[in-house]
Each structure stands twice: as C-alpha cells, then as structure tokens.
Design goal:
500 residues, binds NADP nicotinamide-adenine-dinucleotide phosphate, 8-stranded mixed sheet, alpha/beta, globular
Length: 500
C-alpha cells in the first residue's frame, strides 16, 4: 500500500466512446492531471466508430465539463488524447494500434509503461488480452498492466476460462480487477476504523457483536441494461463482488503489514471461511426477490417483467437478502446479513455493526428497552460514521436515551474527495493492487455464489414479482432476520444525523 510507482504511462482505453469512459474515466484522469498526479502521460482511445482525434478530444472535453462543471487547463489536457478506430474482434488491425502506441510512447517519453483498460463488454476481455500479447503490444521495456471491469466471468467455470486467457499475456501481479466499491472512500475507511481505534478492535468478535448488516439499495430499475441483467441478476451483479468484498473487509484479521499481499491474503482467508450453502439449505439462508410495479418519488414505475429486453416470465432476481456465516474462531455464530436490490425505497449503502445487549440493564423501563450500541458506516450517498450510544436523558431522573455521535465526510473536503475511479486509476499507475481483487478472491466468491444460483436457476420462483417498487424488498427478507430475533435497522432511522 505504501509503495510509490512510476506515474509515467501510456493508457490505452478499449471502449473509449462508451458510458464508463465518458462518465467516469475521462473526468477521473482530468482530476488526476489537475492535481499534478500524472507525470508524463498519453491516452489512446479505442472503439469502432470512425471519429477523428479532434472529435475524440472534444468528447473528452464535454465529458469533463458535464461531470465536473469546470474545465480549466482542458486544452492542454486533451492534447494528450489520441483515437484509433479499431474492431477488437478483427485480428488484422492490432498492428496499426501497436504502431501508434510505439510512436506515442516515443513522443511523450513514456518509458514503455502501458496500462490497458478494458472498458468493454466482458466477452471481449479474453480475446483482447490474447491479441495484446500475440501482436506485440505487451512487448515493452516498462511495466504493463491490464485493468479489467466487472463482470469477471459469469460463474466459476467461465471465470477460470477468462483468467486462463488473461494469464497467457499478463501475470497475476499485472492484472487489476476493478471492484469499484473498493475505490469508495468509506469502504477504504473500514480497515482504518477497525485497526486504528483501540475501542473497536477488542470488541470486534463474536463475544461483543451480535450481527452485522450490509444494505446496498438502489432506486433505479434495470433501465436499458435488461439484456445483460437477465443473464446476471442481483446475486451475480452485486453479491459475488461488492457485497462479499465488504464482508471480507469487515471480517478479516488485522494484516501484519498494509502491503498488497498481506491484505489480500487476510481477505482470502475470510472467503475460505464462508460457510458453503447449497441444495435444500439455500432457502434457509438466502431470499430472492423481483420488483413489481409501484410508486417511487411520486412516479409510477413498471414491474421488472415489463422492462425492455426482459422476459415476460423472467425468473431473474432483482433483490437478494442473505445470511452469511463465517466459520472461524472470531466470527462463529455471528450472522452477516446482506441485502441488495433495485427499485427499492431509497438509494443507500450502509453497514450496521450491532453490538450485543449489555448483561444487565439498570435503566430498563417497562415501556422501552435500551437500544443496543450500533456502529453505522455510511458508504453512499452520505459518507460518514455514526456511533449509537445510550446516555442520561437531560433533566430526567436516571432515564437513558439514545444519543448518536456522528462524523460526516461533507463540507469543504467533500468537494475534493476523489471519485472511486480516480483513486483506482491512481493506484494502478502507482502499481498498488491492494484495492483490486485477486484471482483467489474471485474464485472463492464465485464458488460460494454458484451454489446458490444453481438452485435458483433450476427452480422457478413461484411468487415473482414479490415486492413492490419503492419498498425495502419482499417480506421474506424481514423474516430471515426475525427467525434469529433481529430486524433490519430502518435506513431512514440510521440516516437521521449524518445527512443533515
Ligand atoms: P458501453 O457504453 O456499451 O460501451 C462499450 C464500448 O465498447 C463503446 O465504446 C463501443 O464503441 C466499444 N465497442 C463495442 N464493440 C467493440 C468492438 N468490437 N471493437 C472495439 N470497440 C467496441 O459499455 P459501458 O457501460 O461503458 O461498460 C463497459 C464495461 O464496464 C462493461 O464491462 C461494464 O460491465 C463495465 N462497467 C460499466 C459501468 C458503467 O457505469 N457504465 C460500471 C461498472 C462496470 P463503438 O460502438 O464505437 O465500437
């Protein structure tokens, strides 16, 4: 984590006219540039449509202005951008790309350092990696790194195939698998909150924590991504990667050092400890849902099955809730409840660490029990931490009431908080792969998820759609916690102080 790398690089973006490049990558590069974080650099954008360098540079300019509302020094910035029309499926045209890359490398003295960013549909990942090697684009005297977007495979088998193709051209250390949640400020903060505070780490185990809840809810529906989503669903799209990554960061042992290898190996140990759930047990631990029509922010929205490019009888889940058990000494018996879905009541990602009740409650009142202590980590859209404590009610006898201590990442600093992609691009240029997923993490998480999707794909969900748009998911999701004597802490109750 502490290593500093060479910030001189040729960045080749495959899919440079696409949504990800335009909305995230160009603005992130611009911010890095304006902060003086890029030494010598140039960008080659690759996509099929025949546009000129100038048109490409103008699209970069527009994207920066749209995303950031400002663009000082933009002309100097975009002068580093080049465009090559190239069909990645056409084996014959990689030669021209190589020639352009070599020329630009020389012109900007980029020392043969190359980052290949694949911002394209996943079916192209493997073939591009193979071509980069066979057509000599990876024959460089500097570093070569491959940045690859999700999804990394569709299941364990396809992920293995993809990995095999990639590894013929790049070593594991050269592969940067993006999980953009790992670029989020408060996800990165999890380990600091845990390992830099004497008041938390001693309590961070099954003696003091009763359960942990992770919710990532979206208001949006599937929009125009129906074709992709039908083959994915919430389990593959959110649980295999983002949700399990957050579980790993919350559950891992303190690494002996903050190096990439040490942090990753602690995370891998969590993945190895996940209780495997399969066959008839799946229904005891996991709940699936699909949204029906409903009202969100006063607007009537259609059910999932009425969305474009979605099967009218679709069995695809747009919601998942699950109870994840980590069978190791620290976490035995502590459920990690995860919940994610589309068309829910609110857009929010939060972690709630619920501590056990105190052994004897001196302040019990017949009409009200004391609240348990909660540590809430607000990931998005608000960023911050709230600690829920009990304290004496002002003026009263010795009645206790809940107080919330909050820290919010807002105000002046938030204006300068780097976007997730900016941090990840910067990490990649520095050669720091800590916040990218290692192959072992990918493989263990697919193995876990495959057991569940095997059951869901082979049994039709008779009750779909089973939650209305604008709610927090199906009733069965609440029952999952009720069986254990818990409930989902309502998101708006947790929001109270942090968003003000
Ligand atoms: P997109 O908008 O569909 O863009 C795809 C890009 O690939 C376009 O630039 C397209 O340009 C190019 N392309 C398609 N076929 C090509 C070919 N045969 N040869 C060369 N270029 C080709 O996709 P996206 O939303 O940016 O997503 C890209 C990747 O990022 C996907 O893996 C996605 O899952 C992942 N991702 C995206 C987001 C996001 O916010 N968009 C978030 C997380 C992950 P031409 O049509 O001109 O060829």
């Amino acid at each position: 984590m502490t290593q500093t790398g060479n910030m001189t690089s040729l960045i080749m973006i495959f899919g440079a006219t696409g949504d990800l490049a335009v909305r995230k990558l160009f603005p992130s590069l611009y911010r890095l540039y304006n902060r003086g974080k890029l030494d010598k650099f140039a960008v080659i954008g690759v996509a099929r449509r025949p546009i000129s360098n100038e048109e490409f540079q103008n699209s970069v300019k527009d994207s920066v202005l749209t995303a950031l509302g400002k663009n000082e020094n933009i002309d100097e910035f975009i002068s580093h951008f080049y465009y090559q029309a190239h069909d990645v499926a056409d084996s014959g045209s990689y030669g021209a790309l190589k020639e352009l890359a070599n020329q630009i490398d020389e012109k900007y003295e980029l020392e043969g350092n190359r980052i290949f960013y694949l911002a394209m549909a996943p079916e192209f990942f493997g073939p591009i990696a193979l071509h980069l090697k066979s057509d000599g684009l990876t024959d460089v005297k500097g570093y070569k790194r491959l940045v690859i977007e999700k999804p990394f495979g569709h299941d364990l088998e396809s992920a293995k195939q993809l990995n095999k193709q990639i590894r013929t051209a790049f070593s594991e250390k050269e592969v940067y698998r993006i999980d953009h949640y790992l670029g989020k400020e408060m996800v990165r903060n999890i380990e600091v909150i845990r390992f830099a505070n004497a008041i938390f780490e001693p309590l961070w185990n099954n003696r003091y924590i009763s359960n942990i809840q992770i919710t990532s809810s979206e208001i949006l529906g599937v929009e125009e991504r129906g074709r992709y989503y039908e083959t994915s669903g919430a389990l593959r799209d959110m649980v295999q990667n983002h949700m399990l990554q957050m579980v790993a960061l919350l559950a891992m042992e303190p690494p002996i050092r903050l190096t990439t290898d040490e942090v990753r190996s602690e995370k891998v140990r969590v993945f190895r400890s996940l209780r495997s759930i399969s066959g008839g047990e799946v229904d005891k631990y996991f709940v699936r849902g699909q949204y029906g029509s409903g009202t969100i922010e006063d607007e009537q929205v259609p059910e999932y099955r009425a969305e474009p490019m979605v099967d009218k009888e679709s069995n695809t889940e747009t919601f998942v809730a699950g109870k994840v058990m980590i069978d190791n000494f620290r976490w035995a018996g502590v459920p990690f409840y995860i919940r994610t879905g589309k068309r829910m009541k609110t857009k929010s990602t939060k972690i709630v660490v619920q501590f056990k009740d105190i052994p004897m409650n001196l302040y019990y009142q017949p009409e009200k029990m004391l609240n348990p202590n909660l540590l809430v980590i607000h990931i998005q859209p608000e960023e911050g931490i709230t600690l829920h404590l009990n304290a004496k009610k002002m003026g009263g006898h010795l009645d206790a009431q809940e107080v919330k201590l909050s820290f919010a990442n807002t105000g002046i600093n938030a204006m300068n908080t780097p976007e997730g992609y900016e941090k990840l691009l910067y990490d990649c240029m520095r050669g720091d792969a800590t916040n990218f997923t290692h192959w072992d993490e990918v493989a263990y998480s697919w193995a876990f998820v495959d057991n569940i999707s095997d059951v869901w794909e082979n049994t039709k969900a008779g009750d779909f759609p089973n939650y209305s748009s604008g709610t927090m998911g199906p009733r069965a999701s609440d029952e999952l916690l009720e069986k254990d004597g818990f409930f989902w802490w309502p998101v708006d109750y947790l929001d109270v102080d942090i968003c003000k």
